[in-house]
Design goal:
Structural class: alpha+beta
Strand content: 5-15%
Radius of gyration: 35 Å
Strand order of the largest sheet: 10-9-8-11-12
Number of strands: 12
Number of helices: 23
Distance between the termini: 85 Å
Largest sheet: 5 strands, mixed
Shape: extended
């Protein structure tokens, strides 16, 4: 006798209807004969919380059933079961040919048999809504459901409440997985920021940064939560502490980076005292508090721009006048076309809280410099036409802001370590301020002096993280410190800062040595995939020339020789 195949298992519903409505279960209490109703070839009996259920093998849906009960409702379900219908073809109702799909695993495509997985669909749906920030109600939209069913007729719509619950389940699951991953991390750096939404609700975001086992920089958001007013230093410190305890990493914090608000200074002091009391203050607290360099740069430039508002006033008012009216802007753009000024930049109005928007406004206005005078001939109400002197001043300010803009882009790098690049950029800013302070133009002097005050306020003392990052860069080591510090700090103080950097390096080395006295042999086999031929060619500056000139200099102190070379 031949073995049954899949085709034998698929049931003709006309044959099902001819079977006994009660099946064998009606007499099962008296006899133990095998069930004869054909529905049991497509159902199985399970026990759910003590209750007996009949589960459809196609739909994976549980139906009510009791021992010896009728099977009519089971036959009715089979007639309406969509997944079952999808397996039947033509009058013979034979099985469909299996669908193939390409599964991508770790970049490799694998051919596999397609199988509809309701759980997998809901998991991908959650990821889609979270990543793209779609509103939950979208899952109930009529055409969203139609679209999903056009992709797969088996798609089962869900409610937005269900989607919300699925999101929370995934969050809890991912959080537990990340906790396990962080268990093997010894030191973690934090960054935090606060802001107020347009609903006047204060929020705090806390992010952790760490190196994984493959020495790749990783970033994960620990918490994004509302912060009740007032946003005092104690409130900020308490909120951060609660989050660290929740994640179980309160003893692993090495540094925390915050902006320069006075409340943050108090928060850092409280956190530092707490860690010190538990003897969990890494590196003796020397690099615990890191001030946000991008925020310092922003404050510095904002102070400088307040001194020259009169210099760029006509350009600012001209752009505002044109942007307020679509007809004016259209007329301006028509002149641009007639002059064949091939530029992709349109007029930009600056925002008081963003200095780089002022740079963008000046850069665009300077490119369209010749258009403003021609527009004046067509609009007698236009009263803010910049003079030739205004354009000259704007060009000087724009050239200065371009340097700051380039430095900000380096500071704002997110996908690569950037602390080793900061010191050289800060030196460039200091050098530019020193050069501009001797300028004969009054507005340049006023702007420069104001910015130098802010520079000295925040960078008057050595930023150890910035300095150590530069030393650990194999291109610089101690060379950049020895060259830049005499130019950044006063003549009677720069040597003290150099000594601080050297002592901190020795301290860090000893602390890491005590934690891990043996170097992992697997690290020595790692490869460095940097290709110098593909690197972006950079302009040489004073530091490059100094390194070439002093390449043969070796410190007399034998202890420092390996650090300098």
């Amino acid at each position: 006798m031949s073995r049954p195949t899949k085709a034998n298992i698929v049931i003709d519903m006309e044959d099902v209807d001819k079977d006994d409505e009660m099946g064998i279960d009606a007499t099962e209490a008296k006899t133990s004969r095998k069930k004869r109703s054909v529905v049991w070839k497509e159902f199985e009996i399970i026990t759910n919380s003590g209750d007996m259920k009949a589960r459809c093998n196609h739909y994976k849906h549980n139906l009510a059933y009791k021992k010896g009960g009728a099977t009519t409702h089971l036959k009715r379900h089979l007639k309406l079961c969509t997944p079952r219908k999808a397996t039947l073809v033509g009058k013979d109702k034979g099985p469909k040919q299996s669908l193939l799909s390409f599964d991508v695993t770790e970049g490799d495509e694998m051919l596999s048999i397609f199988k509809y997985d309701k759980g997998k669909i809901r998991e991908e749906l959650v990821k889609m809504f979270v990543v793209h920030e779609y509103p939950f109600r979208m899952v109930e939209h009529e055409f969203f459901t139609k679209f999903c069913r056009s992709l797969n007729p088996k798609y089962e719509p869900i409610k937005r409440q269900t989607l919300k619950l699925d999101c929370m389940k995934m969050y809890i699951s991912e959080k537990e997985s990340l906790k396990l991953a962080l268990a093997g991390i010894n030191k973690i750096s934090l960054t935090s920021d606060l802001w107020t939404s347009n609903q006047s609700i204060g929020y705090m975001c806390l992010t952790r940064h760490f190196m994984d086992s493959e020495w790749k920089l990783q970033k994960r958001i620990l918490n994004f939560c509302p912060l009740e007013p007032p946003h005092t230093g104690l409130a900020i410190a308490d909120s951060i502490s609660e989050c660290l305890i929740d994640w179980g990493i309160e003893d692993k914090i090495s540094t925390i980076t915050l902006d320069n608000a006075s409340s943050n200074d108090l928060a850092v002091r409280v956190l530092k005292e707490n860690f010190e009391a538990k003897e969990k203050l890494h590196f003796g607290g020397k690099i615990f508090h890191v001030r946000c360099c991008a925020h310092i740069l922003n404050l510095m430039v904002q102070d400088g721009l307040t001194e020259i508002r009169d210099v760029i006033e006509n350009i600012q008012e001209s752009v505002k006048y044109l942007k307020l009216s679509p007809s004016r802007l259209y007329k301006f753009n028509e002149i641009v076309k007639s002059l064949k000024l091939f530029t992709s930049k349109c007029l930009i109005l600056d925002v008081p809280t963003r200095w780089n928007s002022t740079y963008a406004m000046l850069e665009c206005a300077l490119e369209n410099k010749s258009v403003f005078s021609r527009y004046k001939e067509r609009d007698y109400n236009y009263k803010w036409l910049p003079s030739d002197e205004d354009w000259k001043r704007a060009a000087e300010v724009s050239k200065f802001l371009e340097v700051i803009n380039d430095v900000t882009k380096v500071f704002s790098g997110r996908k690569y370590p950037s602390s080793n690049l900061f010191l050289r950029q800060i030196w460039k800013v200091r050098k530019m301020l020193n050069d501009m302070s001797t300028n004969n133009r009054d507005f340049v002097k006023r702007m420069t002096l104001k910015m130098k005050e802010k520079f000295d306020k925040y960078w008057g003392e050595c930023n150890l993280v910035m300095a150590i990052g530069a030393v650990l860069d194999p291109r610089y080591k101690m060379k950049l410190i020895l060259y830049s510090f005499p130019k950044i700090y006063p003549a009677n103080d720069f040597q003290r800062h150099i000594d601080d950097v050297r002592e901190s390096l020795e301290f860090l080395y000893k602390e890491y040595l005590s934690v891990d006295s043996q170097i992992n042999s697997s690290m020595s086999s790692g490869t460095y995939d940097h290709n110098p031929s593909q690197a972006k060619k950079q302009k040489t500056d004073d530091f490059d020339e100094w390194v070439i000139t002093n390449s043969d200099i070796i410190p007399g102190n034998k202890r420092d020789r390996h650090v300098f070379r």
